[in-house]
Amino acid sequence: MPEKILIVEDEKALQETLAYNLTREGYEPVVAGDGNTAIAKARELHPDLILLDIMLPGKDGFEVCRILRQEMNTPILMLTAREEEIDRVVGLEVGADDYMTKPFSMRELIARVKAMLRRVRLIREEVQTTEKIEAEKEELRSNNLVIDLKRREAMLDGKVLDLKPKEYDLLLYFMQHQARALSRDALLEQVWGWDFTGDSRTVDVHIRWLREKIETDPSNPTRIVTVRGAGYRFEG
Length: 236
Ligand code: CA
Hints:
Blueprint: E1 4-8, H1 12-24, E2 28-32, H2 35-45, E3 49-53, H3 61-71, E4 76-80, H4 83-90, E5 98-101, H5 106-136, E6 139-142, E7 145-148, E8 153-156, E9 159-160, H6 165-176, E10 181-182, H7 184-192, H8 201-214, E11 224-227, E12 231-234
The structure holds calcium ion (CA).
């Protein structure tokens, strides 16, 4: 899908030249000739980049930039014509990402647009890669205790433990929150969910069962320890 670029410019000739050149570069331009239309189109179309003139009928470019900045992180390239405008843009008062002074060469503008969009793509890819690595993580390990997330199984010394579903969920939650004191209420809420109607004794019972399966000496637990007045803590 071509990247969408919102052109906010009231000078008809420049608006058309920009749209023509961006189309030729493979982008999909959308035009707005005043501030209010610009805001409406940005909200509706979620462009990949915004070219924003400053002197506009209705709301000016500064105002448009300030409003859009609060709502989206779409890169904004300001088009400035006067010295005093440049000062405000450069002062980052309005939150624009870059600016160009009129008159500018179309070639330079296209180069700037490409660079800005490339930056956005790189950031987006980085985020996706991080998310993918997280999603592909298959194992949680704590000494001789291993949870296989895909199979929903826990193993102790390589042997699969016979856990009830809630015991598994509880152990998983503990392993994800190692060394942190967790109250019975927090465990109920996180492992059993809001709609669960039981009480905190449910947690105690499941912990007792879990200890019998993972502790060397269940009566003197060293993995799931009781934190007086607070709840439980998984030590590893
Ligand atoms: Ca103008």
